[in-house]
Amino acid sequence: IHFVLLISRQGKVRLTxxxxxxxxxxxxxxxxxxxxxAQVIRELSGxxxxxxxxxxxxxxxxxxxxxxxxxASLYFCMCISQDDNELExxxxxxxxxxxxxxxxxxxxxxxxxxxxxxxxxILDELLIAGELQESSKKTVAxxxxxxxxxxxxAKEQSGSISNMIVQATK
Amino acid sequence: xxxxxxxxxxxxxxxxxxxxxKEQERLRVDKELGNIRTRFKNEKGLTPYEKKKYVWKMLYIxxxxxxxxxxxxxxxxxxxxxxxxxxxxxxxxxSSLLNENHDFLxxxxxxxxxxxxxxxxxxxxxxxxxxxxxxxxEFAESLAPDVQKLLISSSCRPLVRKKAALCLLRLYRKNPxxxxxxxxxxxxxxxxxxRDLGVLTSSMSLLVALVANNHDAYWSCLPKCVKAxxxxxxxxxxxxxxxxxxxxxxxxxxxxxxxxxxxPTIEDPNTRRxxxxxxxxxxxxxxxxxxxxxxxxxHAVLFEALALVMHLDAEKEIMxxxxxxxxxxIAVREPNIRYLxxxxxxxxxxxxxxxxxxxRHQAQIITSLKDPDISIRRRALDLLYGMCDVSNTKDIxxxxxxxxxxxxxxxxxxLSLKAAILAEKFAPDLSWYVDVILQLIDKAGDFVSDDxxxxxxxxxxxxxxxxxxxxxxxxxxxxxxAIHETMVKVSAYILGEYSHLLARRPGCSPKxxxxxxxxxxxxxSTSTIPILLSTYAKILMHTQPSDPELQNQIWxxxxxxxxxxxxxxxxxxxxxxxxxSKGAALMDIMAEMPKFPERQSALIKKAEDTETDTAExxxxxxxxxxxxxxxxxxxxxxxxxxxxxxxxxxxxxxxxMSNVDHSSADHGVTQxxxxxxxxxxxxxxxxxxxxxDLLGPLAIEGPPGSAVQSERNLVPGTEGVPxxxxxxxxxxxxxxxxxVQPIGNIAERFQALCxxxxxxxxxxxxxxxxxxxxxxxxxxxxxxFLGNKNTSPLVSVQALxxxxxxxxxxxxxVPDTIPPRAQVQCPxxxxxxxxxxxxxxLDFSYxxxxxxxxxxxxxxxxxxxxxxxxxxxEEFFPQWRSISGPPLKLQEVVRGVRPMxxxxxxxxxxxxxxxxxPGLDPNANNLVASTTFYSESTRAMLCLIRIETDPxxxxxxxxxxxxxxxxxxxxLKEFIKEQLVSIPTVSRGPAPPLPQTQPTSxxxxxxxxxxxxxxxxx
Lengths: 170, 1018
Description:
The complex is a heterodimer.
Chain A: E1 3-8, E2 13-18, H1 30-49, E3 58-61, E4 64-71, E5 74-81, H2 86-104, H3 109-114, H4 116-126, E6 127-128, E7 131-132, H5 137-169
Antiparallel strand pairs in A: 1-2, 1-5, 3-4, 4-5, 6-7
Chain B: H1 7-18, H2 22-41, H3 48-64, H4 72-78, H5 84-97, H6 104-117, H7 121-134, H8 137-152, H9 158-174, H10 181-191, H11 197-213, H12 221-233, E1 243-244, E2 247-248, H13 250-260, H14 269-285, H15 292-312, H16 316-329, H17 335-351, H18 355-359, H19 362-368, H20 374-387, H21 393-404, H22 409-426, H23 430-444, H24 450-462, H25 466-478, H26 485-498, H27 510-520, H28 529-542, H29 548-561, H30 567-581, H31 584-589, H32 602-610, H33 619-628, H34 646-653, H35 655-658, H36 662-670, H37 688-695, H38 704-719, H39 732-735, H40 746-755, E3 758-763, E4 767-776, E5 779-788, E6 795-802, E7 807-811, E8 823-832, E9 841-848, E10 850-857, E11 866-868, H41 873-882, E12 889-894, H42 902-911, E13 915-916, E14 926-935, E15 939-950, E16 953-963, H43 966-981, H44 1001-1007, H45 1009-1017
Antiparallel strand pairs in B: 1-2, 3-4, 4-5, 5-8, 6-9, 7-8, 9-10, 11-14, 12-16, 13-14, 14-15, 15-16
């Protein structure tokens, strides 16, 4: 998988994750790089959002392929090479959605807007280097929960300590 | 929703969402960015919580499409935070905002490394994830060993190890050298025994990448993959949580089958049998079910199984099962399956002989060409293109033409290109081909590239029978009311050349032809006018007896354009006017175009070029490429891509002016020797070489190909025999521009590479060309490493391989530009067809200020195709005796040998993989050696060598070489002689004579640039 993209029906980006540096030349200026990424997103939203409901889930784009699937108002897109197995990726998308669903409890677009950071780290538990690392929902859920609890405990601890520090330095 | 837990962040997101328009949103975001900037500036007051919040906000703003570059540093610095919550944010945001090319990332390497080697498991995970997602070359070099350690460590938990596996995969992609094949192949095999399916899934991905590059080293993994697949497919001992809609991890199944596709064959019959049982089960046991996800998952597995079956080139029976399945798929309603059915049928065409079965589905495929879904239409087009042959071209091409008028714009160019290629490749008769192309131009002129009409003109020019027909057709199209400009071009060109063949037909008198063409002139652009002017000149010439009225009309036009602002038009007008006033002189110059030299169709080349490659190509594609592609093999006299070197341009492009003014051509010749660089008068046009041919209607100098060649032949004569010691010297034409001095001695580097398989082939202040080779029997895989040593890019990089006739060499595409300080790798596949000592040449050029061109011998020399074999006395003597004398056994007394002891000589022989068999010859002054030579024609062939030295005079010896093939014996004998007489310097006195055994090779060599150059390099 070269990149993952979540876009809303209105073309708003909800998540982007690039596994290959998606810029033409190496070490171009950062500004140019961002512009190129924006271009990629624009092109793809144009392509995908325009597609009707009963078409296949694959779009050929440049020399790559985008596998996408629509869930309510959100399009989940993953870009792969031409030779990759399209259906496999289609089900990676669904697997991700199921995990999000289980985590948020019937996930909706708003969840992903306000908790975009969680969408990111859940994705990180699924994919590294654009490859699937874990195919057990249970394991992923466990690992995410462990991370959350780490953050919680840290917050409780630091809450008291940092308050004290802030108080002391005032 | 309350999960967010960061109020500031939620408020900001709500604010942005409540903005009524983009302008408001920008204001809100700018305000926030300002706020974040100031907060970061006086960092003191920031609590870790606040820092975290701001960095998240930045990621959100970045997603909205704004630049947050100022904050990269802050995100990166959070990575070194001591506590998990901040660290996590640092890692996640960094890996989302940055990519491997950001300089900031380097600052983090140390912290990341500490986290990886540290004891904290959660930190390890974060760090591995970051490196796995955005790690670049530098990470690869500094972290790979640590990551490997984690992956194989028994004390690490699965959650760390699976991340380490994918992290290593990433690093390997960035730099394959970080995984040491010898040490790693066993470990990789062990990893496949892993019980934890998460770790196994990740490891399988790693294996896919490894075998894609080097399957040989990972043979031991093959049976394990089959075992794993069996276990999954039979659902044996798979934990419930790893089944997905009842299917045992479909992803792992797919990956496993992917890995298996990189092994060329499966030799072990048992393994093969059990694999086929599993595949059969998948192929036959997959049903269509209601649940979409289950259906997708099971078909993902099914399609991968199909691919594997195709790869294994299974028996006909299972193959036809596959085709039957695909035939079913392309007719189903489910669009995904239909799409994949078409796609896989196309793939199947590439590897097996199933064309006839697929043809049965032609009607169904044509229906898909009209599918509402463009993805499916594209696949159908590809498939039709692939399955087309002589028997069905007419149907298919006509179908494509028909579809062309309704096709969407996105597809028209591809459609017309494909129709044009098919028409050319499989035309049942040439007039049909002309029809098709003219229809194409008529229906979709905007999408017909120049190449297409150039090609039809070439065909017509080269086939006399076709000329009257083409002229009639062109004339007919001109009657249409509004025709595309390309049609004007092609019909004007054809009528200019051949309208005189129609003169007796109604409406085809010169005058009528002229006026109907001239009617179009006001509608065309400046690029077409020159063609029309040439046509007029030609019509004028063909009008015999001359028609004063027509002449006056045409002269008036020439005079009108004499002051045209466009130089090309002006020049033609002036020239044609002057020429046509001379009367008879016009006859010669305006004669018909001579035939074009045969060359690879530019169209087909274009189609090949557009097929792109990715880092890990599927095995299928690799194989298909080996069969069909000849991307950079020189079949033509000219460089396959880009503009030809200056000298060639000089001669080829001269015509458009030199014919007019003969003194200017003379002028060109009288210039300093060899520098035939007449400045080209026309502005550079898009596809220079084709246009040069076609738009130069004056045909005195004959086809360009011969001009180039005659000049090539000239080179050695005018420049004298190049200095054999220096490979550079044979580039006489490039010399004048080559101000760059190579570092080190090119000849010595070449000699060294003849003995070892990796090293530097060439180096100068700007570039270093390294080489790494891997030889297996008669095949070799070289990788050229082109390293740019500068801080600015090297441009116009071109590498051409000039192979000798006995080697098949294929260089993958070389990028035009090498970025600063970057290294690109270009694999070069070599196949040895028959024994020969000739060497291939790499013609390499680039631009860095000046144009630099070097021609380098490639170390694909005879001894690389030798494999050591040691032979016992019992084996040696019967063989030796069975070969009685010439031409299989040749003996020669060699003089002028570099003095060396027998032991030294034995070492020398061993270094060339001629293995000395001690003790076989009782005389201590003699040496007996054996080796196996591999080539496509000889296959593996045993070679035996005996050397008798004279202890009294070490400068002479007697050598006897025997093998089962005369050429091989001769070539090997000469090869050994060369090594004995002159090592390590290359100056070997008189060049060895051409092999007597191949008297035909001498003339052939002349037309083979590779052989010519290689000959010069000796």
